[in-house]
Amino acid sequence: MSRMGTRPRVLVVGAGLAGTATAIRLLHFARRPLEIVLLERRPDYRSAGVAYHPDGNPWDHVFNIQAGRMSVFREDVLDFIRWANQEADRRDWPRPWAEREFTEQGPAPRRIFQDYLQDRLAEARRESCPGVDLVEANGEALDMDARDRGFEVTVGHLRANGLERLRPGPLPDTQVLGTDHVVLATGLELKDPPFAAEVAGHPSFVRNPYSAAGVRALARLPSDATVAIVGSALSAYDSAGMLLRNGHTGRIHLISKSGTIFRTYPDTHEHRVLRLPRPDTLLEPYRNREEFLARVATAWRTACSTVREDHPGIAPAIVSECVAKAWEPYLPEAVERIPTNELRSLLDEFATTIAASRVGAVEHTMGVIEHAMRTPDGPVELVLGRVRAITPAPSGRLLVSVAAQDERHSVEADLVVSNFGREFDYAKVKAPLWRNLLRKGIAAPHERTGRGLEVDERGTLLGADGRPTGPVSTVGALREGDEIVRHGRAGAFTFNLAAIKNHSVSVAAHVVEQLELRQDGLNDIAARHPHYRSYASNPQEAARAALEESVVLEVRRLATRQREQREALDSRLNASLPSLACLAALPTDVSRPDRLMRAVVNRVAVERLNDLSVTPRQLRRQLGIGNVENLEG
Predict the structure, then answer these.
(1) Cβ contacts of 560 within 8 Å, gap of 6 or more
(2) Distance separating alpha carbons of residues 172 and 298, to the nearest angstrom
(3) Could you tell me the pTM of the whole model?
(4) Do residues 519 and 527 touch, judged by C-beta distance below 8 A?
(5) For 418, phi and psi rounded to 5 degrees?
(6) With 338 labelled, which of 92, 124, 130, 506 sits at a CA distance of 20 to 30 A?
(7) What is the pLDDT of residues 60-99, one digit of tens each?
């Protein structure tokens, strides 16, 4: 039981992709009564967030990657495809999509992802264990205070049915909600571009193209109008592609400080993880910026040549992605050698270039834009340079001032679209929650990168003193800096679906483990035995066969969505735990050694589910869950 004599409560702040994915896993993993409160300040963003909500995503806005990589379950790679083809309600879909048979390599509209996540959340709710309940609440988390192993969270405009353990808050229309664990999944934060201060409210300036107002502005634009799109990241292509598909003939200027153009995935592309030689030159001491970039360029060319020579079947457009992925295990060591100021500067300058090397886009998105750029006198033009200012022009249009090296020029446009820019420096985020958490020292900006927040290896939030501030976990964009320095992930891969899948598994497993240990009187286990998570790290210290049998059962339990099958696996796992008594490193003064063994097994199982060295398809085979419905298969 919790500190308040009732079942424990977990509050998930943010119900977009990250929050919904974590809630799904909590519903799957919890074996004892638990209340999960999924809080969202914008009801239209529930199970969608910025990237997928229908009002900001017309039907031609498709996933950047192939539909076959969009499953919310990494261990079940084709789940989204099966849902789209067999379960989705297509009655309100336009004919081209309603009649489509979705494939692994093909496109799919982003707006249907909200329906998919809602269906999977509803399924998890139905298949949860007795006493495990989900409360979907609307409201904005404004502040948090630690209280006796938990937190009290102040929520504004809270709307929820059947929610107890509330008291009036300090401000009008606020309430204080007690919770045993908080999961922060607040998603991307909007950035105020300083160059657009004079036109922030101008009708010809679109700050957020993924808003209903932004979509309307693009849809209503005369076909011969001149458009300037600031930025050349993938979201810029959504705006340009929407215009072109609607028959736009006027000039479209893609303004990019790096001049980066993303690659188009081949129709037959299948994600692969290659083993490439260790890039030793990247791991030499850091001398200066120019010398380091020269080393990176040389090592990059060598690695790309190796891929082309050793893997001739890989399409040229995919070579850079294969190299970037293969280098991830070595990048933390390379990053460690770079001084903090230099690291931040390099990330700022090369963010788009890094993103373009790590991921491409499907032909549905890129084809119409590439055609418009290749065609003589085509409407799309890439403008190289950094935007210095956007100001009203005497003509009533907007003037975009661009600086490129030693020259400056201007683009006059009927509409200017600010490519969706996120604020990654939480010291600048204006949301009340983050202002309060940073002011109180409950959270701290990521010191090395200035991106995201300080967290530990489990995603637990660290305070200004570098220590965990209590039972607070993080998922998604909040962990950007940590993903860079700990896992070598870069660009959007620090917070996109791929990262969130792993975060949701590890955070949900950690939350359930901590609550169960507390209920069993072992809440001080980490303090008394700080290395308890690594007792099985050396197989020579364990009964290998017994440990492996238990881990396999736990992996299958975590990967199973049907309650009856999970309970059967749980029973088998409990029966196998006594055989682990011979784990040599287990402490002898633990009152419930079975609980400690269970935590050890769970940790190993989570590590296997989150193994980044293999593709999801390889992971499924490696874990022996080729068919989750057939648990013996």
Answers:
(1) 28, 566, 569, 628, 631
(2) 61
(3) 0.93
(4) no
(5) -85, 110
(6) 506
(7) 999 988 999 899 999 998 999 999 999 999 999 999 999 9
